[in-house]
Amino acid sequence: MAWFRKDKKPLKAEDRRDVPTDVFDKCKGCGEILYRERLAQNLNVCPNCSHHLRIGAHAYVSILLDAGSFKELDVELKAADPLGFSDLKDYPVRIAVAEAKGKNEALVSGTGTLDEIEVSLAVMDFDFIGGSMGSVVGEKIARAGMMALKKKIPLLIVSASGGARMQEGIYSLMQMAKVSTVLARMHDEGLPFISILTHPTTGGVTASYAMLGDVNIAEPGALIGFAGPRVIEETIKQELPAGFQRAEFLQEHGMVDRVVDRRELKATIGTVLRHQFAGWSD
Fold first, then answer.
1. Total domains in the fold of the chain
2. Confidence at 229, pLDDT banded by 50, 70, 90
3. Per residue in 105-122, pLDDT tens?
4. Can you name the residues that pair with 159 across neighbouring β-strands?
5. 128: phi > 0 → left, psi -120 to 50 → alpha, else beta; which?
6. Burial group, residue 255, by CB count within 10 angstroms (0-12, 13-18, 19+)
7. Sign of CA dihedral 60, 65, 69, 74
8. Does 45 share its domain with 63?
9. Please, which residues have CB within 8 angstroms of residue 36's CB and are 6 or more apart in sequence?
10. Which domain holds residue 44?
11. Contact 131, 106 (CB under 8 A)
């Protein structure tokens, strides 16, 4: 009987359903295909293996600060081309491409409250030329530190960077000393600085302010180091131990104070500020 039979017909292109490309993400930790909306609700932490997927600067602002409290500063500061790389390389083009995504620089800074504690916050953005530290990044971090000094409040820096921005040469390297000087002033004033290390934190950023926190907190699995593992192995002619330069390894060896899940980051920092620095504002 014909109505009990289902004729097999080839699937035509117009019969296929178009699935938007931004609906799912693949976890780099376990390979699980994850529904992006559910992933966002979990702060971009894989519910299957707890792998921390990379997020942008404004996402960290939302995670760390109380809703509606953030006041962004120094928005007008933008990357330039101080060494004239436009004659040799594509640096201005890379800046233009990054700015086309709605970003001014590789760092967002401002003030706000974390569990009703006023803080000065600077967050690096890896999506802007690999979160590289150029003259504008250094200037904005220094200004965030100066704001903390002016208002007598804690400073938080979230690092995510490939290191110094090579296209700015010595101008980039100077930022290491400039920011470190401001942090030294904060230390003299007894103002707390909490450094939050995310994946990756490398190069000149690690060699300067990222490791100068009164408390250094890292996200699980974050790559943290100066030179890459392959460069180190070739230099010392030895095989590196498993997990070298990962957050957990650094905690075991005293370079990181705590490894904290992103979902617990705000509560942990609030506890640190209230207890470890209970007398800083007296």
1. 2
2. confident
3. 999 999 999 999 999 999
4. 197
5. beta
6. middle
7. negative
8. no
9. 22, 23, 24, 25
10. 22-53
11. yes
DSSP readout, 213-261? -SEEEE-TT-BEESS-HHHHHHHHTSPPPTTTTBHHHHHHTTS-SEE--
- Of 170, 176, 230, 231, which Cα lies nearest the Cα of 206? 176
Say if 6 falls within a structural domain. Answer: no
The last residue of a domain, from among 37, 53, 69: 53
| DSSP conformational letter for 12 | P
41 shares its domain with 78 = no
Phi, psi of 47 (to 5 degrees): -70, -15
Note the pLDDT tens digit of each residue in 164-204: 998 899 999 999 999 999 999 999 999 999 999 999 999 99
Tokens of 276: 């470890």
One domain for residues 70 and 38: no
Closest CA to 139 of 162, 105, 190, 185: 105
Amino acid, res. 281: S
Q: How far is it, in rounded angstroms, from Cα 127 to Cα 200?
A: 12
182: enclosing H helix or E strand: helix 169-189
